[in-house]
Design a protein that fits this description.
This protein has about 170 residues and is of the alpha/beta class. Helices cover about 30% and strands about 25% of the residues. It has a 6-stranded mixed beta sheet, sandwiched between helices. A two-stranded antiparallel ribbon has the order 7-8. It is globular.
Length: about 170
């Protein structure tokens, strides 16, 4: 009898497990540095309010699989556009209300740009693709045609941090 309960418990445990959750970095600069050190892409979610990172996702909620891949394979940043200190960066990233920008694992190139709410299936597919450690970024995948860009080599920014140079097509 006890064996039956133990077996049932093992079978049901995944249904009640708390999904992994990403650690949301409060600083874009720190996240880029951490991404470079860990050789992970940086996922920058833009929204508004305390839980606004999910505003970029259709339905306003991440799936357990999305949370898992973000926690394991990405350095995550949430930029609250309602905070005065983030408004310029959000504008520079080309996000109007909510959206997602993903760097490559070097932090030098923008691999993905989505201005607005992103469909669940598109988010899942792109998170999986962009997490590939062997992926080499040569252009930005974007829902805004004008944002599709090709990149040259790293250049020095005014802050002394090496970042990619964008050449728009």
């Amino acid at each position: 009898m006890y064996t039956s309960f133990l077996t049932l418990g093992v079978m049901l445990a995944p249904m009640f497990a708390i999904p992994e959750r990403p650690t949301w970095q409060p600083s874009y600069t720190i996240a880029l540095d951490r991404g470079q050190k860990e050789s992970k892409p940086v996922a920058i979610f833009v929204g508004s309010g305390p839980q606004g990172q999910a505003a970029a996702v259709k339905g306003g909620q991440f799936s357990p699989d999305q949370l898992r891949i973000l926690a394991q394979k990405y350095v995550c940043v949430y930029l609250d556009r309602s905070q005065a200190g983030t408004q310029r960066l959000v504008r520079d990233l080309g996000i109007t209300v909510a959206g997602l920008v993903v760097s490559d694992k070097t932090g030098n190139f923008q691999a993905f740009h989505h201005d607005g709410v992103i469909a669940q299936d598109v988010l899942s597919k792109e998170l999986q693709n962009l997490a590939d450690p062997n992926r080499v970024v040569s252009r930005t995948v974007s829902n805004t045609p004008a944002r599709v860009s090709y990149y040259g080599g790293p250049v020095e920014s005014s802050s002394g941090v090496s970042r990619g140079r964008t050449v728009s097509c």
